[in-house]
Specification:
heterodimer; A: alpha+beta; Glutaredoxin; elongated; B: alpha/beta; Ubiquitin-like (UB roll); five-stranded mixed β-sheet; 24 helices; disordered C terminus
Chain lengths: 163, 527
């Protein structure tokens, strides 16, 4: 992975984000997940440059922070698209035609599962269950739940993403 | 002013209920947002207060406000509590869900809330534990371990600091009871945890909620703030997960709270003795803890009087997937699987025949309709090679390809494996490959192996060409062998139970793995 240096974060700002987050969630190892959530919430992803800062803030090793960032599916190491569509792939959605909807989503949004479109407009991701299992197929579109997805609903999502 | 009750459950919102609520507010109504009643076919639904009754209309949209307020809308359902789907339930845990404003302490208290905690605080710790033991309550997360015995171990464990941890990392597809309860009646969970804290002398608790449930996280955090005075000196906090299914396993969850990778710990030591931060810890599922206020309030006999065999009390069953009346149905153990799927669930939503139901999430077995006589009971399901798990039932119609579902079970395990033990980490990937070969053989049916790209096949299987060349029968034998290794060699339920959906698919739907065709080919020459 090569990082585009022009996109690299402002280190002072990053340190400030971590400092403020630590004030809220604490500075023990147990605060690591809340801290990573806070950093991702503020900056959109966990930049590799944040790892040593977080390690030193919590007095743990960089390896421990790296290990956690890479273990959990939620944490991104690169910025996401401007819109994020999380499509459920679990059994209950499959029982209601989820696989067909996934194919439509990939073609209409113009991006593969787990990928961000070239123009940075949208990231399409798999999610395994949103707990809306009687009304699938389901998705989270920028955090907003959408149920009973069909081709028409995917078209509406594609339109809002492209707007 | 007309009082209107409208759900703000995540599922209702996904169906567009917010626009309906806004339309009623614009029409000058007093809109109370509740949890969901749990029948999604009639949502978005609104309930108009009429004395003691609530007249439901659903499904409705924002354009229907005038017709609803005049009582002329065609989707009038009558008094919601009298609908057969609700009236036939035994709602012990979900009695308030869909009825009350989730964040109204007054509503909660008026509907029987906090009485269990009051009674518990008047009892000795041992008496509270005895009460939970007498109720027969078993862990609702899936394992079915007696909750009272777990509490007893923690109560008896030495140590000045103990914890209560609620496992709200409900990751199983087809389950949503935890989510509905946390969104619709969060005080119930808080009360259950406070009772547990009193019983074992714990001072702090964590609710570990998966990040896929943003609404539940928000509601729980607000509810904890509101209830702080009620549960003091006990304190609670919500921990948000980060998308790892394996953190639903209790020891992985504890590591996750500690700020580590969510990897499974070897047991012993039991979490009850050395749990969170090495301290004695009660770790229970949402539904186990939420059942406790009822048990303390109404008495253990009232809870234990319902049920079947050693499975006492009620189970909030979740009907999901391709089912007509999908939703939450709380009922005493013992009801048959067929009654749940056909009578209450109403069969498939597509109108096609039911072919398979998966009970208990991604690690649960697939059952055909010929097994619908099974009573909903921990032991009966275990005997039949399955599990109740978190009581999610995912229904599939006859368009399902069971080889594909078996492959998905292995794929899901490989995506979610924590990596600590080999049978799960490697076995799941090998499982996907074996099933891929079966599917390819089934498609080609010439008995030849699958050609892997880039000559990989030759490289990988140079020493065992017979495995690459073999037919579905040989591959199936290999798959069974692999399942055996995973079942008995894995550290936790993820690798250990992934064989359930795979083996049940093989056992009950062999035709999807090429077995019928193979048999026919053998029989033909004889004729």
């Amino acid at each position: 992975m090569t990082a585009d240096r022009s996109d690299s974060p402002d280190m002072t700002a990053l340190a400030d984000v971590i400092l403020r987050a630590c004030a809220a969630v604490g500075n023990t190892q147990s605060a690591l997940l809340p801290l990573l959530h806070a950093v991702q919430h503020e900056t959109g992803y966990i930049d590799d440059a944040a790892v040593p800062l977080i390690a030193s803030a919590l007095n743990i090793s960089r390896a421990e922070v790296h290990g956690v960032v890479t273990f959990y599916h939620d944490f991104r190491r690169n910025p996401a698209g401007r819109h994020v569509v999380k499509l459920c792939r679990a059994e209950s959605c499959q029982a209601r035609g989820g696989a067909a909807v996934e194919t439509v989503a990939v073609s209409r949004l113009g991006v593969g599962m787990g990928k961000t479109r070239g123009d940075g407009a949208v990231t399409l991701e798999a999610v395994y269950c949103l707990g809306l299992c009687a009304i699938g197929p389901n998705a989270l579109v920028d955090g907003r739940p959408v149920a009973r997805l069909d081709a028409a609903a995917i078209d509406r999502i594609a339109k809002s993403v492209n707007a | 002013m007309t009082r209107v009750f409208i759900s703000q459950d995540m599922a209702s919102i996904a169906l567009g209920v917010d626009a309906v609520a806004q339309a009623f507010r614009d029409a000058g109504c007093d809109v109370v947002r509740t949890g969901s009643r749990g029948l999604f076919r009639i949502e978005p639904m609104v309930e108009i207060e009429d004395g003691d009754r609530r007249i439901g209309y659903g499904p409705v949209g924002p354009q229907d406000v005038a017709a609803i307020l005049s009582g002329s809308h065609p989707n009038r359902l009558g008094n919601v509590a009298d609908l057969a789907f609700f009236a036939s339930q035994q709602r012990f845990t979900f009695a308030r869900c869909g009825v009350v404003d989730p964040l109204s302490d007054a509503d909660y208290a008026a509907h029987g809330g906090w009485r269990g905690l009051e009674k518990a605080l008047g009892l000795d710790r041992q008496d509270v534990v005895d009460c939970v033991k007498a109720s027969g309550l078993r862990g609702r997360g899936g394992a079915g371990f007696p909750t009272g015995i777990k509490w007893q171990t923690v109560l008896g464990a030495p140590g000045s600091e103990k914890f209560i941890v609620c496992n709200a990392d409900e990751g199983d597809s087809g389950t949503f009871a935890d989510r509905m309860l946390m969104e619709g009646d969060p005080f119930c969970l808080i009360e259950g945890m406070a009772i547990a804290a009193h019983a074992v002398a714990a001072s702090h608790g964590y609710i570990y909620v998966r990040s896929e449930y943003p609404f539940a996280i928000e509601t729980m955090r607000k509810a904890i703030e509101l209830a702080a005075g009620r549960i003091a000196p006990f304190t609670l906090e919500v921990r948000e997960g980060a998308g790892a299914y394996v953190c639903g396993e209790e020891t992985a969850l504890l590591d996750s709270i500690e700020g580590k990778r969510g990897q499974v710990r070897a047991k012993p030591p039991l979490p009850a003795l050395e749990g969170l931060f090495g301290k004695p810890t009660v770790i229970n599922n949402v539904l186990s803890l939420a059942a406790v206020p009822f048990i303390l309030d109404k008495g253990p006999e009232a809870y234990a009087s319902v049920g079947f065999g050693r499975s006492r009390g009620t189970m909030p069953v979740q009907l999901a997937g391709n089912v007509r009346n999908g939703g939450l149905y709380e009922i005493g153990f013992g009801i048959t699987l067929g009654a749940l799927v056909n009578d209450i669930g109403g069969g498939t939503n597509s109108g096609r025949p039911v072919r398979a139901v998966q009970v208990g999430g991604p690690l649960g077995a697939y059952f055909p309709p010929s097994m619908f006589h099974l009573p909903f009971d921990y032991e009966a399901f275990a005997e039949a090679g399955g599990l109740i798990g978190h009581a999610g039932i995912t229904v599939f119609d006859d368009s399902v390809d069971m080889a594909h579902m078996a492959r998905f079970a292995m794929e899901f395990c490989s995506v979610e494996s924590c990596g600590k033990c080999t049978p799960c980490r490697i076995g799941s990937t090998r499982g996907v490959e074996v099933i891929d070969r079966i599917i390819a053989w089934r498609g080609g049916r010439q008995g030849a192996g699958v050609a892997l790209p880039h000559g990989l096949g030759a490289a990988l299987y140079s020493r065992s060409p017979e495995r690459m060349q073999s037919d579905a029968a040989a591959q199936t034998a290999l798959l069974r062998d692999l399942c055996d290794t995973m079942k008995f060699g894995s550290l936790c339920a993820l690798g250990g139970f992934t064989p359930y959906p795979v083996l049940s698919a093989l056992d009950y739907f062999p035709e999807d793995f090429g077995a019928v065709a193979a048999a026919a080919e053998v029989v033909e020459p004889v004729r």
